[in-house]
Structures are given as structure tokens and as C-alpha cells.
Please model this.
Amino acid sequence: MLELILFSSLNGVLYGMLLFMMAGGLTLIFSMMGVLNFAHASFYMLGAYFGFEIARHLGFWPGLVLAPVIVGLVGALVERYGLRQVHKHGHVAELLFTFGLAFVIEELVQMIWGKLPVDYRVPEALDFVAFTMFGTTYPAYKVFMLGIAILMFLSLLWVLTKTRVGLIIQASLSHPQMVAMLGHNVPRVFMMVFGGGCMLAGLAGVIAGPALVTQPSMAALLGPILFVVVVLGGLGSLTGAFIASLLIGLVQTFAVAVNLSLSDLLHFISFDPNAGSVLADLWRVTVAQIAPVIPYLLLILILILRPTGLMGNRES
Model:
């Protein structure tokens, strides 16, 4: 039991921090521009593929540095020559633009790298066992992933709270007209934030690619969970996104590890539904089987009980 709790906690925190690496950037983009970027998970996928391609020619470590920068530049160009032109037509046009962009990126990835998963491997320097506990080994690469995610969180927190750039960004979130009156180029700040958010997503893709499967469907698999995190934490709240990321990561990881059903939990009730009936199937379904649905159940509950999310202060 202790082994289950320990390793599920480690994996849950790791998964949650990976979610935050993407949700943090998406939250900043929404806070400043009021746009829910449906293509955000696609930049995560681009990070994984760019990291794979650079690793083939230069090695994993150059890819870890260069791939997120390239993804960030692509994101900045998308904002400058795409979203900025669409912005005058309203939020619906922006949502449709990012929705279409997600499909364009997926098709381009399939054209260049094919529809099958690519062989993006863990670097040899990190391909060993970090520690063994209760007879179970834990890979060093997962520890590395967790370290990068925590470092990213601390760096983002430092930039936003301790630097002049962070102060300008925070001011632009709430008072863009005043920031413009002080002589700052607000559209350039928008572009920097959009590119920076995409860069964080690309970094998540680079470090997650070798541990997970790098394939064209990886954006579609993670994209819906990403929006659950943003809505659950509160639209525009970076703190809320962090709490919701860890919550989703831990809840889903523990749920996958629990192989209990209603019949196991309520075994003292003398209830035996007819075999083959729908009620019998529901009576015996396990928590692990419904684990993928739990985040969306949380999304429905939070929208009913607190539409602004855990830490949000607005509904728009």
C-alpha cells in the first residue's frame, strides 16, 4: 500500500507539472489576449518533433535548448501575422483561427514525419535507474522531467514577480491602455507572451516526447485535458492553473492504480443484478476503468458549482 501511494504520488506530481508547463502558457495567453488557444497542444507536439529531429543530428541536449526556442518563434509569428490580423473580427474569429491552425499543424506533421510514431528515445546519459524502493525501480529520466518542470515553474514565477518584464506583463494583463500610455509597445508584449507560452508548451513536448509516444495524435490526446485544467483552475489564474494541474495529475494517476468497483466497496449490500444487464456492468466497473472520464466529471461539477473555477475571478 505504501509503495502504491509513493509511486502514484511521484507519477501524479510529474504528470501534473507537465500539464502546468502547457496550462501556464495558455493561462497567460488568455489573461492578456482573452483567447483560448485551441492550437496550444499542437505547439507541444511541435516541441516533441523538433526535439526528435534535432536530436537525430546534434543530440538530445541541443534539442532540449533549440526546439522550445524554435516553437516559441513559430508561436510569435502566428500571433504577429495571424491572430493580430484576426483580432479585429472578435473572439469567435480568433477561436476558429486557432481551431483551424491545430488541424493544419497536425497535417503538416503527418506530411513531414508520417502517421506512425517516431523513434524518439531517452538519452543514454539519463537511461538508468534513479532509485529502487520496495523492489520497484524509478527511471532517472522521470526524475529529470520533474526537475525541469519544477525549474520552469520557479523561473516563470521569478520572471513574473521579480523582473521589469514581468511587471510590464502583469500590468498589460489588467491595464493595457495605461501601459501603452507609459510608452510600452503592448502589441509587442502580446507577441512575446504568446511566443513564450508556446515555448513552454514546446519545452514540455521535448522532455515528454522520449518518455511518452511521439506521434501525430499526441496533441489531440492531451488537448482536452489541458482545457479542463485551465477551466478548473480559473480562466486567467496562473495559481489556479498550478493547483488544478497537480490535482488532475494526482487524481488521474491514483484512479488508474485503484482496481476497485462498487461491488467491492459495497460488498455488504446483498445486491446481485442480472448477469449481462447494463446495471450489472455498472456495478462491476472499476475506478481504473473510469479514470479517463474523471477530469471531465470534475469539469462539469466546477462549471455547475463555481463557473469561475477554483481561483478565477471572472467568467468571460
